[in-house]
Write a structure and sequence with these properties.
alpha/beta, D-Maltodextrin-Binding Protein, domain 2, 440 residues, two-stranded antiparallel sheet
Length: 440
């Protein structure tokens, strides 16, 4: 790490100034940060072997009382990490409390009562725009450290108008999970084979096709993907150029396969997958990294996970394209302790902490080093998540109007009365879906 940072530092025009001020946040006076909790310019700080910045970077913030939001599954581990942070800077007399708060609700809670919000909070990447627009989140105070340590995709998802706002913490995607006694590793590579294996065993394949987060697979796989906003107000979703015939044919392929395996393919909430594994009714499903502990516990040695399977469209096996996001930490713009909060956010998302989360709670790392380690390579779930990220669309810069029309599309093509052979009707559905997303 020190070698990497040294190389980056040597190439920076402001290297001398940064070394002189010693705060890693600005080439100016570190005791006078701006209102966002960053300095005049985000910068690079040297970290020790455990991922801590120099104590001088915390300025004169002695006696800081910091609140951190983390999801239930990570509260205990996060508290241990925070205790280690406080102990490392014992002379600063820092007190840190970790409170349970789900990432999906973090932005809403922070915006509704910013004063009560945590100084450092976890959130999902698709909430970033709301946090920025409401002025709740500060810019990242250690941009170069974050860039040096994390994957390009995770950094890009947290960057808006060339400014980085968050500290990447973990990946947040879904993939195929399966019972190896039902679906072999080989058959798990093709959707047709997965469904056939489940049918032969009298088991269900579970996917929440009525949720736009998952049903977007149907359009994304056909090339109908999103790319940020089409307007400055961030109200109109932008779609990439796509081949309509390919998109329609792909939707038809999904619809036909689902119809062929009626009774096997089942649209249910993802929490039914683990319970299905437990009672023996489920053979495979599409689930996320957040449920892996539960899924693997139910199946034991028969637990399998891999990237989403291919689907055959007009004789071509096409990789399924998914929605793929990230979970990150943000620093509240109005925190009373901006320097301490920023240093804590950097530490909690650093290499050592990401490794601990991967080992103890199966959170996929964004850290480049940890991604290549055995903790990932030896985990079917973490490896599946990494592989699926290569066939995905970033879960960021999405309009609120995206979800319901996409969910409706999913419900339509899996309906008993839907005719997969009707290309004109399928085209109408696709056109209406995109129109509703843009116009609602």
């Amino acid at each position: 790490m020190k070698k990497i940072l040294a190389i980056l530092l040597a190439g920076m025009m402001t290297a001398t100034a940064l070394a002189g001020c010693g705060d890693g946040q600005t080439s100016g006076d570190s005791s006078n940060p701006d209102s966002s909790g960053t300095g005049d310019a985000p910068g690079l700080a040297e970290l020790d072997a455990e991922g801590f910045v120099d104590a001088a970077e915390l300025g004169d913030e002695t006696g800081a009382t910091i609140k951190v939001w983390a999801p239930d599954a990570a509260v205990n581990l996060t508290q241990k990490m925070c205790d280690a942070f406080a102990e490392h800077y014992a002379d600063k007399n820092i007190s840190i409390s970790v409170v349970a708060q789900g990432e999906k609700d973090a932005a809403t809670q922070a915006q509704s009562d910013v004063d009560a919000a945590a100084d450092v909070f976890g959130f999902a990447s698709d909430q970033l725009d709301n946090l920025i627009n409401s002025g709740v989140i500060a810019e990242c105070a250690y941009t170069d450290n974050v860039i040096a340590m994390n994957t390009e995709e995770s950094v890009k998802a947290g960057t808006v108008n060339d400014k980085l706002y968050y500290y990447p913490e973990t990946t947040n995607g879904y993939f195929l999970v399966y019972d190896k006694s039902v679906v072999s590793d080989e058959k798990a590579q093709k959707f047709e084979d997965v469904l056939a294996a489940c049918k032969d065993a009298g088991k269900r394949f579970i996917m929440d096709a009525g949720d736009g987060y998952y049903s977007c697979i149907f359009t994304f796989t056909g090339g109908v993907t999103i790319d940020g906003y089409a307007d400055e107000e961030q109200t109109v979703q932008n779609f990439v150029d796509y081949d309509e015939d390919t998109a329609v044919a792909t939707l038809q392929a999904f619809a036909q396969l689902i119809k062929d395996y009626k009774g096997t393919f089942t649209s249910l909430s993802v929490d039914k997958i683990a319970s299905g594994f437990a009672d023996g009714s489920c053979g495979a499903g599409i689930d996320g990294i957040w449920d892996i502990e539960s899924d693997s516990e139910k199946l034991g040695e028969n637990f399998g996970a891999t990237k989403l399977p291919t689907i055959n469209v007009n004789g071509e096996d096409k990789a399924m394209i998914s929605m793929y996001g990230y979970k990150a930490l943000g620093v509240k713009s109005t925190t009373k302790y901006p320097l301490t909060s920023a240093a804590l956010a950097l530490y909690l998302t650093g290499e050592n902490c990401q490794r601990q989360r991967a080992e103890q709670i199966q959170w996929g790392p964004t850290n480049k080093t940890v991604t290549e380690e055995d903790v990932v390579k030896n985990s079917a779930a973490l490896s599946a998540s990494v592989e699926q990220s290569k066939n995905s669309v970033a879960q960021v810069h999405i309009t609120s109007t995206f979800w319901d029309p996409m969910a409706n599309l999913g419900n339509q093509i899996i309906a008993d009365e839907w005719d997969p052979s009707n290309a004109d009707k399928t085209k109408e559905l696709l056109t209406a879906t995109i129109k509703n997303i843009k116009d609602e």
